[in-house]
Amino acid sequence: MRSIFAATLVGVVSIVLLLPVANALTPRSDFGDNVSTYRLFGSKVCGDHLCKPGEWNTWITNLISSQIKKFNTMIGIKNPQPNTVKNAAYDTSNLLDTSSGDITRISTFSMGDGQYTSFVSVTNNGPLGVNHIVISQTNPDVKTLKAWISPQWDSSIALYKTSFDTSKSSLTQDQTLNIVIVTDGKPAFSLDSLEAK
To answer: What is the rounded radius of gyration, in angstroms, for the C-alpha atoms of the chain?
Structure first.
């Protein structure tokens, strides 16, 4: 009886070891958004029912739009409030070197430990190519810790003003530039000047 049991056990163990491993995680080869069922020759599925003609495109568009709105709300991107979009103030004695523009969007995120990171979008509405930008942080007792645009732009941080200068590129008409500013409290910004130097 023992020999039969041992032979059976050896046979079962050898079969288990020789069989290929089953894996439910098989790699996907089709990355298209072609959700379909084979019940009715590949009819598309719209939520909990089979799509009517033309319904699938509308359903997918609504689904993607809903996901984008929820994502923007989740990460804090909102339409700019009227008080956050401010026109630039300029010295009118030097109109040849100044350009008009405004802050078109500000998205501010709390990073913890009292620090905030803001993404400030500045648009040049004037005809001149701009290579000097000055932005003020208007909340008292909030200091600017870091500010940058890209390696082509140099930043200089004073108490409440940050200036950006470049000789390698320029902000042309109707172009928007995204600026990253890190502060030690919740900030508010105004655009002081756009200039061509």
So the answer is: 30
Region of 153 please: left (phi>0), alpha (psi -120 to 50) or beta.
beta
CA dihedral of 174, 81, 79, 119, whole degrees rounded to 10: 70
Percent of the chain with pLDDT over 70: 70
**What's the pLDDT tens digit per position in 87-127?**
444 444 443 456 788 888 888 888 888 889 999 888 888 88
* pTM, 2 dp: 0.51
Cα 138 to Cα 113, 155, 175, distances in angstroms: 21, 18, 25
Give strand pairing partners of 177: 122
Could you give the CA distance from residue 127 to residue 124 in angstroms, rounded to a whole number?
A: 8
